[in-house]
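Target chain:
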Amino acid sequence: MSETLATWLSYRPGDLLMFAPETYLRLFERLNHELWPGHVLLGVLVLAMLWLGRRPEPVAHRAAGVLLAIAWAAVAWGFFGLYAEINLAAPWLAGVFVAEALALGVIAILGPGLAIDRRGRRAHIGLALTLWGLLGHPLLLIALGRSLAALELFGLAPTPTAISTIGLLLMSRLRHPAPLLALPVLWCLIAALTWWALLTT
């Protein structure tokens, strides 16, 4: 084995990151600090999205879809604007959220929007994922010792937004949600790899 190859194999995933776990956590602290007290409005908008998605009127479904698209756009602008300070790949990752926001916006305006149906196995899985993204993910972080100031919330942080979106799309009446699911699933994989790398530093 050559010396160069041996050197490369000696690297751990965490050695390839440009920031420490503490630096990454401070991003969420800054996000929450800048939004406060807008968390109340954020909660109202999330409840409005869920309520509109359950209404029978098509215009309500369109409005729910628009709110979901706005959540993705907000993460692209807010979180990744800060993330770009410590990660050169952040603008490209933000593009994932911009692309999903545009796709959701097209479905909301030109398509059926976000019509939520809680019947069936797919919808039950979707409901579980939606609740996990909205409540379970932040509560797990608290249980693991994360401070309230550094919580990751839907519409603010990328991971709970992606998880809840997967759930909402599974609960939706869209016949073929797979194209819209691709980018949220991709982000979940990226987030898992990022934390794996952070934990090996």
Remarks:
- The chain has eight helices and no strands.
- Helices lie at 3-9, 21-35, 39-54, 58-83, 90-110, 121-143, 158-171, 178-199.
- Residues 58-83 form the longest helix (26 residues).
- Residues 21 and 198 are 6 Å apart (CA to CA).
